[in-house]
Amino acid sequence: MKKILTIVGARPQFIKAAAISHVVRDKYAGKITEDILHTGQHYDAAMSARFFDELDIPRPRYNLGVGSGSHGVQTAAMLEGVEAVLLAERYDGVLVYGDTNSTLAGALAAAKLHVPVYHVEAGLRSYNRAMPEELNRLLTDHASTLLFAPTATAVHNLEKEGFEKGRVVAAGDVMLDNVMHYRPEAVRRKPWPSDGRPMILATVHRDFNTDDPKRLRTIVEALERVGERLDATVVFPVHPRTRGHMSGMGGGATRLRCVEPLSYLETLSALDCCRMVMTDSGGLQKEAFFCGRPCVVLRPETEWAEIVDCGAARLADADVDAVVCAAEAMWDAAVPRPTQFGDGHAADRILDAISC
Ligand code: UD1
Question: Which of 118, 250, 255, 343 is spaced 20 to 30 A from 144 at the CA atom?
């Protein structure tokens, strides 16, 4: 029996961890036991507890309660907290997800104590080191024992960096597992209310988009303009980080509708109902693709290049005309079937490799 510590802290990690936890419970009961450690990076009910309830994720055994702070303060507090847990209790491995500060802290604390690190969503690269997430990904990959790559591009990126073949597992993407598992239920349980106009689902939370008032103002204006041009309603669930920087913006907008952050099932139902997605989120780019919706990526580059390459998404940096032009181009775009992200059974492959 292997005893694994799953380390999560931010909203997208709760969603990814749900895919693994279900399979641990359903298929690996005699082989793997899992404890969950929540760093406390996200702490608002709408950003954290709601996902545990809705996705039926086991309660965290540990909650470090780290909260918000600068990168150094936040990561250091997590590092200290994870290390204390790993010193107090023996685990056969830690599972970390994605590219947040919680991912890096979990991987680093474990690797220094010679506890095997399993990285889910390994090998992603935007090749923009100004993004905190890019540093988190690189450093986590290099501290990891087994690297679970979601796509062939991710495997290739790791090969270029010299990782031995045995360390890299082409697992597929656990987010596809989740969309396949939850989408029918989401659409049935929480149908999205329509206002009669076509809907665009928009999110913005990256620090480089939110923390520069000029950039954020440009994006908000661009979203309103896209709504006017395409005669659509732009539903904009606002991340707390973005809300903190938005005061006075979007006033007088008629097509932009700001709402509270959505739960996972609400997101899937909004994706079902919308005609297009505009986002700087990596996760939502993929979910749009999995649900057959075209996407405008509000960034100069993306780590999910295969979605752009197959014509399902287009990049547009913070410039009103560029965003409007990309939105018009994507409005009627045909989205091909996603074949690059596995078959919806990534969690099985990951747990097979871990349980060996
Ligand atoms: C983090 C991740 C990012 C991920 C995102 C998902 C890092 C470096 N970034 O960004 O990769 O895409 O999570 O949402 O780890 N806040 C609240 N309540 C909360 C959480 C945050 O009010 O529950 C506010 C605080 O003002 C905080 C700010 O949001 O300072 C930013 O939160 P933080 O966890 O530092 O980063 P995110 O922007 O959420």
Answer: 343
